[in-house]
């Protein structure tokens, strides 16, 4: 069975499981049978209005700007949209800078016009990501390094019990909220770009990872899991700095930069995305399920754990691919981005030429 089949299967499971959590089918069925669906919908609309009426929004915004430590509120989700719009604008501006560089640095005669166009587009994306994740990782470190729950392996106090101390009414630094907003906005633009771009062989694995990340970010913010969620974000953001640097230069003549970035990426990926993510994030969540199980329900806990394990599985998969990249470099002396699987398109083009 091809890996794409596995990714598609997991994608379907994630979508169905998420829809079930958003709107449980058995509740809809029972309300239809009891004739209470319309009153239930009206009640839901009234609750939405109570959260987003002008007075409530004004009060919550004043709290956000005045207080240093706050709890998530429904109207704060608008900041994710604002962040997404700003990220789109930043991408557009960076594209104007990176496009000429990509055209200059990526060889013209090495690949076909279509493959080269894909590589230039990937260069533009990674060029933006390099700057974005450098800045966002710095913000994350500033916001989290002084927190008591920051893992001791990363230089913090390592009091992981503080992840859920005082839950669900625990207050978190407004800087961590800002970190969340910026990451959430970026993820929205990434999903949009992924859907609008040409569907490459790595589409399903990327979409699966992005979808899980989007769901987890917005679910964790709504349920006030910001502390452990921000650590998970930081582990992934730091790795993206070196991943972006590596993939910016992989198709250029700058092999030294590519190899050095890759070495840092490989070690940081194993440490942050595998060890810290599993031991200092997923495991504490599992051990504290009894804390928030009465509040969000058993099925939501299973759903949350499942999404985290899917992302961990993807991290392991990409770690193995990076190991293959390293072996390929040692044996051939050539740098190649296996993660994007563009080589599959090149093989397809060669096969088409032979048949013609």
Fold and architecture overview:
This protein is mostly helical and 356 residues long. It has one domain (76-161, 168-332). The chain is built from 13 helices and two strands; from the N terminus they run ααααβααβααααααα. It has helices at residues 3-22, 25-34, 37-52, 54-66, 78-105, 113-144, 174-196, 203-222, 226-249, 255-287, 289-296, 298-332, 342-355, and strands at residues 69-70, 172-173. Strands 1-2 form a two-stranded antiparallel ribbon. The two termini are 29 Å apart. The model has no long low-confidence stretch (mean pLDDT 88).
Notable traits:
about 350 residues; mainly alpha; two-stranded antiparallel ribbon; about 80% helix; TLC-dom
Task: Work out the oligomeric state of the chains in this entry.
Answer: single chain
Mean of residue pLDDT values: 88
Shape: globular
* Strand percent estimate: under 5%
The whole-angstrom Rg is 22 Å
- Strand arrangement within the widest β-sheet reads 1-2
Overall number of structural domains: 1
Order of helices and strands: HHHHEHHEHHHHHHH
Any low-confidence stretches, pLDDT <50, length ≥5?
Answer: none
- Give a quick account of the main beta sheet: strands, pairing sense, barrel closure: 2 strands, antiparallel
| Helical percentage | over 70%
Number of strands: 2
Number of DSSP helical runs: 13
Distance between the termini: 29 Å
Structural class: mainly alpha
């Amino acid at each position: 069975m091809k890996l794409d089949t596995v990714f598609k299967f997991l994608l379907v499971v994630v979508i169905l499981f998420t829809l079930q959590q958003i709107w449980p089918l058995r509740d809809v069925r029972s309300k239809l049978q009891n004739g209470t669906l319309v009153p239930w919908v009206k009640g839901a609309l009234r609750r939405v209005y109570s959260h987003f009426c002008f007075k409530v929004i004004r009060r919550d915004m004043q709290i956000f700007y005045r207080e240093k430590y706050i709890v998530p509120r429904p109207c704060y989700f608008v900041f994710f949209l604002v962040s997404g719009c700003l990220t789109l604008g930043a991408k557009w501006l960076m594209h104007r800078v990176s496009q000429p560089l990509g055209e200059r640095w990526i060889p013209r005669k090495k690949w076909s016009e279509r493959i080269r166009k894909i590589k230039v587009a990937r260069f533009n994306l990674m060029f933006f990501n390099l700057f974005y994740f450098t800045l966002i990782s710095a913000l994350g470190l500033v916001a989290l390094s002084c927190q008591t729950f920051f893992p001791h392996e990363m230089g913090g106090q390592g009091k992981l019990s503080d992840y859920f101390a005082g839950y669900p009414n625990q207050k978190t630094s407004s800087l961590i909220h800002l970190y969340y907003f910026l990451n959430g906005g970026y993820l929205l633009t990434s999903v949009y770009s992924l859907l609008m771009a040409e569907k490459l062989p790595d589409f399903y694995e990327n979409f699966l990872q992005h979808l899980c990340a989007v769901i987890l970010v917005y679910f964790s913010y709504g349920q006030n899991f910001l502390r452990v969620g921000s650590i998970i974000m930081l582990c992934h953001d730091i790795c993206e700095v070196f991943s972006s640097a590596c993939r910016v230069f992989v198709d250029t003549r700058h092999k030294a930069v590519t190899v050095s970035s890759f070495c840092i990426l490989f070690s940081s990926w194993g440490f942050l995305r595998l060890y810290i993510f599993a031991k200092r994030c997923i495991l504490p969540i599992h051990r504290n399920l009894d804390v928030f199980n009465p509040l969000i329900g058993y099925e939501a806990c299973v759903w949350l754990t499942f999404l985290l394990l899917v992302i961990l599985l993807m991290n392991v998969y990409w770690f193995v691919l990076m190991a293959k990249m390293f072996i390929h470099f040692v044996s051939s002396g050539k740098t190649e981005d296996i993660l994007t699987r563009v080589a599959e398109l090149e093989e397809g083009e060669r096969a088409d030429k032979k048949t013609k």
